UniProtKB/TrEMBL annotation:
This protein's GO CC annotations: nucleus
Gene source species: Opuntia streptacantha (Prickly pear cactus)
Organism lineage string: Eukaryota, Viridiplantae, Streptophyta, Embryophyta, Tracheophyta
Keyword Transferase: yes
Keyword annotations of the record: Methyltransferase, S-adenosyl-L-methionine, Transferase
Pfam families: PRMT_C
InterPro entries: Arg_MeTrfase (IPR025799), PRMT_dom (IPR055135), SAM-dependent_MTases_sf (IPR029063)
Domain called Protein arginine N-methyltransferase: residue spans: 2-112
Domain of life: Eukaryota
GO terms classed as biological process: methylation
PANTHER family hit by this protein: PROTEIN ARGININE N-METHYLTRANSFERASE (PTHR11006), PROTEIN ARGININE N-METHYLTRANSFERASE PRMT10 (PTHR11006:SF68)
Listed name of the protein: Protein arginine N-methyltransferase domain-containing protein
Molecular function as annotated in GO: histone methyltransferase activity; protein-arginine N-methyltransferase activity
Length: 129
């Protein structure tokens, strides 16, 4: 999901939604969950662009450690998957009603064979504290 921090308002990010697709590239494996992190691109403003774009990434990396954490959303039990299977995923994140500093995340996922046959559909909700 891409958000322009120069123009986004609090109302714009009360609920963050995104849809994406991915495919399995390993034969006879298990799909155990999702991982999340963010990147920030400092590009300046249109009237005052940065001379050189700078990227702050919190992505997992062996070479470029960061004090920022990543979030893991584990599925139990894991799903059986094989090379060529695809996932159509919907992602919704919003602030908790109990504490605005906490987040609730929901994934919806259609797991399909290369033929398009639906293998499994699931929704899973997670709470980030």
């Amino acid at each position: 999901k891409e958000i322009d921090c120069l123009t986004a308002t609090v109302d714009d990010i009360l609920t963050v939604k995104a849809d994406f697709s991915s495919s399995i590239s390993i034969e006879n494996t298990r799909f155990c969950g999702f991982a999340g992190w963010f990147d920030v691109h400092f590009r300046g403003r249109s009237e005052d662009p940065a001379k050189c774009e700078i990227e702050l990434t919190t992505a997992p990396s062996v070479q470029n450690g960061t004090h920022w954490g990543q979030q893991v959303f584990l599925l139990h039990p894991p799903l059986r998957a094989t090379e060529g299977d695809t996932m159509d995923v919907s992602f919704v994140m919003h602030r908790s009603k109990e504490n605005h500093r906490l987040l609730e995340v929901e994934f919806g996922c259609k797991f399909k064979q290369p033929t398009g046959k639906l293998l499994q559909y699931f929704t899973e909700k997670f709470y980030i504290e």
